[in-house]
Amino acid sequence: MNTNLKHRRQRGVVLILALIILATMMIGAAALTRTISNANAIAGNLSFKQNSLNIADIGIETAITDMTTSILGASQENYWPNSCSVANGDCTYYPNQQAADAKGVPLTINWSSVATIASLSIPSGYSVQYVADRMCDPAAGLPIDNPIDDCVSETFNDGRQGGDLSVGGKKLTEANAVAYRVTVRVTGPKSTETFVQAIVKM
């Protein structure tokens, strides 16, 4: 009797230990599965982010084309398109520099209302928008009459002597290129959002 009882107790202890080990292994397997899943999600998000950076080039190229033709071809002083509302923040071009956040993204833009670029080069699932603002002091008002003082610009001289840079130097009288800030927003799968900026001189 005593021997049988002892064997039963030992079998009971072994069963409890086996259950504890099995539960530990299950918890470890679940943790490993979760770690692998998180790693895959991070890798996927990084891939989407990299694709967004590459796609942003389409936005910059489109902005330069539009500025060369439609926007600056009409007037540098007008908001574009003509139907846009500055109050609604849905303009594509602003003739003066817009206030920006710490990352440099203009604060006045309502991206949900800004036009989306239509291009076959943009992969499915991605959306590209851009906003361009001329880097001129808003306090100067419109039109800008003195781009040398009121805008970020490149200047050239008219050949006259007695300039203000040095004694006998040539005077800088005109701006031959004004800087424009192009901000591109790319949205993609899994709510990825990427902003890219470029400074264009025209």
In short:
Helix content is 38%, strand content 20%. With 202 residues, the protein is of the alpha+beta class. It has one domain (2-201).
Q: Keywords for this structure?
A:
202 residues, single chain, elongated, alpha+beta
Fraction of residues in helix: 25-40%
Domain tally:
1
Let me know the number of strands.
5
| Shape descriptor | elongated
The number of helical segments is 2
Strand count, sense and barrel status of the largest sheet are:
5 strands, mixed
- Unreliable residue runs: 160-172
How far from one another are the termini?
A: 102 Å
* Class computed from helices, strands and strand pairing: alpha+beta
- Radius of gyration equals 31 Å
Can you describe this structure?
The chain is α+β, with helices and mostly antiparallel strands. It has one domain. 38% of the residues lie in helices and 20% in strands. The protein contains two helices and five strands; from the N terminus they run H-E-E-H-E-E-E. It has helices spanning 2-74, 147-150; strands at 93-94, 127-134, 153-157, 172-187, 193-201. Strands 1, 2, 3, 4 and 5 form a five-stranded mixed beta sheet that branches. The radius of gyration is 31 Å and the shape is elongated. The termini are far apart.
List the helices and strands and how they pair.
Blueprint: H1 2-74, E1 93-94, E2 127-134, H2 147-150, E3 153-157, E4 172-187, E5 193-201
Parallel strand pairs: 1-2
Antiparallel strand pairs: 2-4, 3-4, 4-5
